[in-house]
Amino acid sequence: LQVLCRYRHVWNINLRFRPAFLGGIMQETGSNKPPAMLPKRAEYMLKDIKRMSEYYQVPLRISEDSLQHVLRQSTLGAMRFITAIDMTQPQYLEPLSREFWIRFWSQHEDISQPENILAVAGQAGLSSEVAQKLLEMISSPAVKNRLKETTEEAIKHGAFGMPAVVAHFNGEAHLFFGSDRLELLGSIIGEKWLGPVPT
């Protein structure tokens, strides 16, 4: 997420955020479990996240305790809120998504709580009145259906987990899973990988 935003103008790509629900993807595909559910993989993942944080220069802060806390959190309310933004005020989609990301992965906030959702919205530049209306929308059938549709679309493209990036290039859709596939993404679209922080 963060590095793709850095590359938007370097690669001259049209970067479009599409909210999808990870729980729905994992349930529908039935072939994926969170990596941290496997003890040895969780142990490795903690070390790898630290290395990736330093390499990509992104403030990930995860410990064994916080990883278990993150795994127990529901992101459904946040994803519905992001979906409501996408439907009504898409200009806020990127700052809102990035703020949710930071609060979840770096500050370990419970982004399922209404007060935290409203705080994220304020940080992203939304007025409290607009944020409150959007919060009320998250239980509406329109928002629920839209999130379900984008989740199903991700699955149709082959998503089985997150992060998932779908690159549309030369009439084809190419799925990339994981945050370490950006160099491959660049090669598919004919662009050069210039490292995690391109100048």
UniProtKB/TrEMBL annotation:
Listed GO biological process terms: glutathione metabolic process
SUPFAM superfamilies to which the protein is assigned, alphabetical: Thioredoxin-like
EC identifiers of the protein: 2.5.1.18
GO cellular component terms given for this protein: mitochondrion; peroxisome
Start and end residues of each DSBA-like thioredoxin domain: 2-187
UniProt entry keywords in alphabetical sequence: Transferase
GO terms of molecular function: glutathione peroxidase activity; glutathione transferase activity
Family the entry assigns: Belongs to the GST superfamily. Kappa family.
PANTHER family in the cross-refs: GLUTATHIONE S-TRANSFERASE KAPPA, GLUTATHIONE S-TRANSFERASE KAPPA 1
Protein name: Glutathione S-transferase kappa 1
Organism: Tauraco erythrolophus (Red-crested turaco)
